Amino acid sequence: MTATTTRARAPRALAALAVVPLLALAACSGVSTEAPAAAEEGAATEESTTSVSDALDVSTSPDQDRIRTTESAEAIALLPDAWKDKDEIVVAISAGSAPPLGFLADDDETPIGNETDIAQLVADALGKDLRLEVKAWADWPLALGSGDVDAVISNVTVTEERKETIDFSTYRNDELGWLVGADSDITSITKREDIAGKVVAVGSGTNQEKIVLEWDRLNQEDGLEPIQGPEYYEQFSDVLLALQSGRIETYVGPNASLAYQAAISPQDFTVVGTLNGGWPDTAQIAVATKKGNEVAPAITAAINHAIEDGTYLEVLQRWGLESEAVEESQTNPPGLPKTE
């Protein structure tokens, strides 16, 4: 695979878009990106486009025509000396997760998604070329610690334990969502009382399972009806079928995937509420860099530059994730506490 890189350029309009498939594809490593050429008028790939009124259309082509920002003098000035002469920034991302965070394009090779777009904004603002390295979740901490990659943008939650070896620059709120069928009688789930008596589905062994069980326990202490279940599902495709058939009433999971699904299939699904993934604490998703290399403030400034010029929100809107937007990027905010 030939290595290519991208240079900063002015933001441009989104290219013709297409619906992303549900299932994530297998990842490859050592993938780089190239600034795509402008799409010819009317050149949308008809075979990968579904026209649904009010649905979010998303391109799955390797030619992403990413949203771009400009260089930030403030961010560049904050770069440590070791980074000033670097021509590129190497960012580890995952490409085996469900859309829209990080997955593979139609060529089964090029990583695309919200995380790659955020990486592009950071590189642009720092005046660097971008090189993406696809890493399995278990492999990125070693790659970051050894210096094989400069940063990780892979849905990494800020925790106090991780802060011992990692510096963070936040770019998204860590949200869970409540997904229901579009024709559901459930219109809002914003507090624990709202799930009393409902058929609730969740993934086994997840943080959201702990939250559901705790909400149910507190509800029963207050004399409310217990939930029916929880019902456990490991495959998201099975969840969608269960919601459509009425076997379950709601599913709680990472809001990024749920919001995306509701955005591309509004005729079938809707998100009726969110809660922070760190409940009762607050969790945030952040760019991870090696502890002590002093680059985090520059990356934080780069993200804030994109927030200020609007390209950050454009990226989140592109993937249906505007509900998870942060008002300001922060360096090393309080993270989730260590577990005993």
UniProtKB/TrEMBL annotation:
**Region Disordered, residue ranges:** 38-67
KW ATP-binding (keyword) present: no
Q: Does the keyword Phosphoprotein apply?
A: no
> Which part of the chain is the Solute-binding protein family 3/N-terminal domain?
88-323
Per the UniProt record, one Pfam family is SBP_bac_3
- For bias kind Low complexity, which ranges apply? 38-55
Instruction: Identify the keywords attached in UniProt to this record, alphabetized.
Output: Signal
Q: Where is the signal peptide?
A: 1-26
The cross-references to InterPro entries, in alphabetical order and at most eight, read: Solute-binding_3/MltF_N (IPR001638)
Its recorded name reads: Solute-binding protein family 3/N-terminal domain-containing protein
Organism expressing this protein natively = Cellulosimicrobium cellulans F16
- Source species taxonomy: Bacteria, Bacillati, Actinomycetota, Actinomycetes, Micrococcales
